Amino acid sequence: MHAIILGICSAFFFAFTFVLNSSMELGGGSWLWSASLRYFFMIPFLLAIVCYNRQVKILWNVMRENPKAWLLWSFVGFGLFYAPLCFASVYAPGWLIAGSWQTTIIAGTLLAPLFMKADSREERAVIPFQELGYSLIILLGVLIMQTDVMSGVPKKEFFLGFIPILIAAFAYPLGNRKMMEITNGRLNAFQRVLGMTIASMPLWIILALIALMTDGPPSGMQSLQSLIVAIASGVIATVLFFKATDLVRNDLRKLAAVEATQSMEIIFALAGEVIFLSVAFPSVISLVGMGIVMAGMALHSYGTLVVIRNKMDKRDC
To answer: Minimal CA–CA distance to 182: which of 247, 92, 126, 249?
Structure first.
């Protein structure tokens, strides 16, 4: 339950991403700056925390063991996660991106065969089909929202607003889980986030250079909002989420449940956009879609708790 609470708290801070990215887009800011500035601003905060705890040397030693893997999976887990989400903000409102982002729950379930079982170094995990069934309910809600909001726009804009979210949905859990395998519990959440941020820097530097040549330097307001995103989503939310996944990293069922808590982002993002950006309130159809997403999340978590309870009952016997 502790991991679930941490997951919900991380969802609240992750929602800052969707609200402020929408705000920056409405203000004319480039999505390239929105993506790269967040990770530039994350470095000093994370470095200060890790240095204060005297854990930089340990992180450096672990990164030196397999630098290619760090570069690859940081690019996947951070680069292919956040850049597509920022790009999607050009074509869709933040609450819709937050809702569609919940396909990451399905992605996390489908990715299970890529990893070894917790109690085996040779046998791969299997897809937990019970959880997958609950995840498909979430997918239904996402499709209802997307169909309702995007029904009147050209197909090109629909795909440009939705396909990047699907890429991000698979990239984030894949990169996160691969880095958990590589580090194998030797790094804490702050160290791992700092390491992945540093390893993903080549991408952010390239995007920043493109933005500088095409749009010029970012405005003061976009820089400030990116700083807030960096602290709220990049540091607080990411560390909370990684801490939650670390607590249950040896149980793919519990891990899927923690990832399911990210469904709360849609509620937090919607409230933020309606209150602070005066975004039009969603239609009844979209609200139904949101309700289905939340119901799918609740069923997913309930199914996981039932499995855990049954395991405990068998142990008692």
So the answer is: 249
Residue 190: which of 121, 248, 243 has the closest Cα? Answer: 243
| pLDDT at residue 186, as a whole number | 93
Comparing 220 with 246, the larger pLDDT belongs to 220
**144-174 pLDDT, tens per residue?**
998 888 777 788 888 898 999 999 999 999 9
Rounded to an integer, what distance in angstroms lies between the CA atom of residue 289 and that of residue 150?
13
Residue 204 and residue 230 in contact, taking contact as beta carbons nearer than 8 Å = no
Contact status, residue 142 vs residue 98, Cβ threshold 8 Å: no
Question: Which of 15, 22, 39, 4 is CA-nearest to residue 235?
Answer: 39
Contacts of 317 (CB under 8 A, 6+ apart): none
- Strand partners of residue 116: 124
Burial class (CB in 10 A: 0-12, 13-18, 19+), 113: exposed
For residue range 249-259, what is the model confidence (pLDDT) as tens digits? 777 667 767 77
pLDDT at 101: 82
